[in-house]
Every structure is written in C-alpha cells, then in structure tokens.
Design brief:
There is one protein chain. The protein is α/β, with parallel strands linked by helices. The protein has four domains: about 5-120, 3-Layer(aba) Sandwich (Rossmann fold), CATH 3.40.50.2300; about 125-300, Rossmann fold; about 305-385, Helicase, Ruva Protein, domain 3; about 390-454, Arc Repressor Mutant, subunit A (Orthogonal Bundle), CATH 1.10.10. Helices cover about 45% and strands about 15% of the residues. It has 19 helices and 14 strands. The strands form four sheets. The protein has a five-stranded parallel β-sheet with strand order 2-1-3-4-5, sandwiched between helices. A five-stranded parallel β-sheet has the order 7-10-13-6-14. A two-stranded antiparallel ribbon has the order 8-9. The longest helix has 19 residues, at about 405-425. The structure holds adenosine-5'-triphosphate. The site of adenosine-5'-triphosphate (ATP) has 17 residues, from α7, α13 and α15. Adenosine-5'-triphosphate binds near residues 161, 166, 167 and 313. This is Sigma-54 factor, interaction domain-containing protein (Modular protein). GO terms for molecular function: ATP binding; DNA binding. Keywords: ATP-binding, DNA-binding, Nucleotide-binding.
C-alpha cells in the first residue's frame, strides 16, 4: 500500500537533492508531496543542514504534540546535542547523514513501520476495545501496538482502579500476531489462597496433596503460547514472587508432586494500581522481578487527567445499551455535569453513572438533568458556575509562588487555549478560531506572534 508523506526543508537545503530523494522514495511506493496544511496529519520528513529556530518551529507546528510522525534528516555537520533539541521540538526520529540519498532504506523502513502502527491504532480491533480521544490514550495505544504486535516483550500496566488496565491486557493479547497463539489466562493475585498457590501457578499431579483427586494444569502451563495476565501483581506475596521469577527466567517449572520439568512460553502482562516502584524500595516487591516485568510500562492516567475521553466514552456506553437503535443524546446541562463530575472510580464510575441515568430515562428525546439520580446530583453553589477548576487555580498559585508574573501567565494561558482548540479541530484553523471566538485572521496573527515570542 502506498504511503503518503509530506516533505519540508529549510532554506539552504538543496531543493534539487530533495527532489532526487522524493523520486527514490516514490520507487519504494512512498508518495511525496510538498508540505501543505491539509496534509498536516500525514507523516513527514524535514531535511535540514543545520538546526535552526526555524526547523524547531516547523517541528512544533507540524508534530501536534508528537501525534504526527516526523523524521528529520540532517547533515553530519550538526552538533551532537542538537538531535535532542529536535526530539524535544517534536521529531519522532533523527537521521544524520551527509548524503541523504544513501539512507533511503532507513527513511523507508521508518515510514513503513509508522504507517503500520498508525493503521493498527486506527483499526476497529483497537478502536472498538479502548475508547477515547485524548492524546494520553492515543499515545498509550501507539505504545501497546508497538510492543504487542512487533515484539513478545512483557508489559506492566499501571493505573488507578477502573482506568482500563484489564482492557489493555486484553488488547495486548488480541494484537499478538502469532497465527497459532494460545489463550489469554487471567489470574487475579488478590484471590490466591496461599496454601493452593503452588497448584494455581504450577498445577499438580494426582494425589500430590489431600483432595488432589486428579492432575491439573496451573496458569503457567495454560498460558503456554499465549498471554499470562497477572492482575493486581503488587499483592503477590514475596515467596510467590520468587517462584514467578524462576519461571520467567528459565521458562521451566515442575508441577506440585511431579518430577518432570515442563517448558512454557508466554507473554507476561502485569497490572497494579499500587506504586510498584515504592514497594520495591520498601522491600515489599523483589527488584529483580520488577525489572523483568517492567520492561515496558504503560501508565493509564485517571479519567480526571483526560477529560476529552468523557464524551466519547459516555456515547459508547449509551450505544452499548441501545445496540439495535440510535441511543438518546445527552442534553447540554447533562454534558456539563458529566464533564465536571469527579470520577474516583474512573471509567467504571462513568459507565455506572450512564447506567443509572438510563434507569430514569423515559424513552423520548435527550437524556435530561432529571435522569441524574438525586444522590448523584451536584449541590448547587456559586462555584458550580465557574469554569475554572482547582487544577487551574493550583497552577496559577505555583506560578505566582515561583515569581512568574501576569504577562507570562497570560501568554501561557492563551497558548494553551490555542493549542487545545487547534488540536481538537485536527489542525483546522477555521474551526479552531470559531471555538476560540476569534476570526481566522486574529488566530493566525496570535500564532505568528507566539512564534516570535519563543
Ligand atoms: N477506554 C475504555 N473504553 C471502553 N471501556 C472502558 C475503557 N476504560 C475502561 N473501560 C470500562 O471500565 C470498566 C473498568 O475497566 P477495567 O476493568 O479494564 O479497569 P481496571 O483498571 O482493570 O480496574 P481494576 O483495577 O479495578 O481491576 C470496564 O467495564 C471497562 O470495560
């Protein structure tokens, strides 16, 4: 499948050389176009013979906070530490080479991999499992596609209760491309009875202990060829941690009451809502086990840190309840209520709120405030009218304590509002200007002024 990319180059880069490279890429089925705002969501390549404020600005503008993949190809003459500057400005990767036409294969392989990841992230397989629009969730989905589809490495999922850790474990298993892969085996470590833990993990032979009337496989054998998901791994007692370490290292184990070594091979996915690293430091979790299970850490942020996910999730839960007809819409005050509400139980909480509202829904028109059960209703105070939340006030207090003045605070507030509006309008400046309540021209002028201020 052809991949569409845009190219940009800073003024002194040989335009002729870029055209030659574009032709070579075209032979690899990569369609190259000059940069244009309409192509802003496509991956791109920037050529530069030096690192200038101009190239960093181009990167900041076109990478949409790292959501758009951009490769920078530089001249060998650039100083070594400049590559970090480019990464910081939003580059996904930096290739340094004196003659760009000699690294066509390196450019091609990166563009192909990114296209494969993007296509999986936007596929129904992923989009129908974990719902959300926030950049945080999208970054996690990219990370999990990269690990689950292209490697067999283990994954540690961290996050508060109800953030979707089990769903992410399911997705990791689903994305595993092995054609004859085994099952996803789930073990909740809080449910392990110490006396039966050996059997639970390793299985047992008939007669191994009182009540062992038949032989039985444990989770290590059942997960062979598939995925073993250890939920709440932070609850695992130290003795069991030692036993787990051995199997992860050696891939072999013996059943309880048995003498024969059995081989097993599985991808390990662990999840916890505890601070596992703090447990390591307090001696409650083995450091050697931590390093083995934490080669890829996915941190699912709480729902309060990704409010952009609230409506997509609410609509998804509504659709789930109305599988064969159109679900009702949410009236504007209900939308505001959902946006402002606190979710200590995260997505699980939101799901339950929707279910409770549907119990009171009479069946015609939008879901209105009367559907919110009395116990869930906010107590009206003057504060409820305010759009500022405590996070915003806290940030201002921190800024003031650090001696940051009104001019800088105002500039950052404006930059943040513009960035959010442009990102949420997928780079469409007209729509962003509408949301910000300014003209297109005023928005363009503000963005140009911000660039000069950088
Ligand atoms: N992004 C999401 N898209 C759709 N449903 C979600 C999402 N995140 C969570 N959920 C739903 O929220 C509920 C809780 O999710 P899940 O069990 O995966 O969370 P968890 O972090 O493993 O929770 P716990 O730590 O309490 O076990 C489930 O019903 C799940 O389907």
């Amino acid at each position: 499948m052809a991949i569409n990319v845009w190219v940009r180059w800073v003024s002194d880069y040989q335009k002729q050389a870029v055209h030659e490279i574009a032709e070579l890429l075209a032979q690899q089925d990569i369609v190259v176009q000059d940069y244009d705002e309409h192509l802003a969501r496509n991956p791109g390549v920037i050529f530069s013979s030096e690192v200038t404020p101009q190239i960093c600005e181009q990167l900041r503008e076109s990478s949409h906070n790292g959501q758009t993949q951009i490769l920078v190809c530089c001249d060998t003459a650039i100083p070594g530490d400049a590559v970090w500057q480019l990464l910081g400005a939003g580059a996904s990767d930096v290739l340094v080479c004196s003659e760009c036409s000699t690294i066509i294969h390196e450019i091609t392989s990166r563009l192909r991999r990114w296209a494969a990841v993007d296509s999986l992230v936007s596929s129904p397989t992923v989009q129908n499992i974990l719902i959300g629009e926030s950049q945080a969730l999208k970054a996690i989905l990219r990370q999990i596609v990269e690990v689950a589809h292209f490697t067999d490495a283990s994954v540690l999922v961290l996050g508060e209760s109800g953030t979707g850790k089990e769903l992410l474990a399911n997705l990791t298993h689903t994305l595993d491309p092995r054609p004859d892969k085994g099952d996803l085996v789930i073990l909740d470590c809080t449910t392990i009875v110490p006396e039966l833990s050996g059997s639970e993990f390793f299985g047992h032979e008939r007669g191994a202990f009182t009540g062992a009337a038949t032989s039985r496989d444990g989770v290590f054998a059942l997960a062979n060829g598939g995925t073993l998901f250890l939920d709440e791994v932070g609850e695992l007692p130290l003795t069991l941690q030692t036993q787990l370490l051995r199997v992860i290292q050696e891939h072999t184990f013996k059943r309880v009451g048995g003498n024969a070594w059995q081989r097993t091979s599985f991808r390990l996915v662990c999840a916890t809502n505890r601070d596992l690293w703090a447990q390591v430091q307090q001696g409650e979790f083995r450091a050697d086990l931590y390093y083995r299970i934490a080669s890829n850490i996915c941190h699912l942020p709480p729902l309060r840190e990704r409010p952009e996910d609230i409506f997509p999730l609410a609509n998804y839960f509504l659709k789930e309840s109305y599988s064969d007809q159109n679900p009702p819409a949410l009236d504007t005050p209900v939308q505001e209520y959902l946006l402002r509400r606190e979710y200590p139980g995260n997505v699980r909480d939101l799901k339950q709120v929707i279910a409770r509202m549907l119990c009171r829904y009479a069946g015609e028109g939008a879901i209105t405030v009367g559907c919110i059960p009395p116990d869930d209703r906010p107590i009206w105070t003057e504060n409820w009218k305010e759009w500022r939340d405590t996070g915003f006030e806290r940030a201002i207090r921190v800024a003031l304590n650090r001696g940051i003045g009104l001019k800088v605070i105002s500039r950052h507030t404006e930059e943040t509002a513009i960035r959010i509006a442009v990102d949420e309008a997928s780079g469409n400046l007209q729509r962003a200007a509408q949301r910000l309540g300014v003209t297109d021209r005023a928005l363009q002028m503000r963005r140009a002024a911000q660039r000069q201020e950088v």
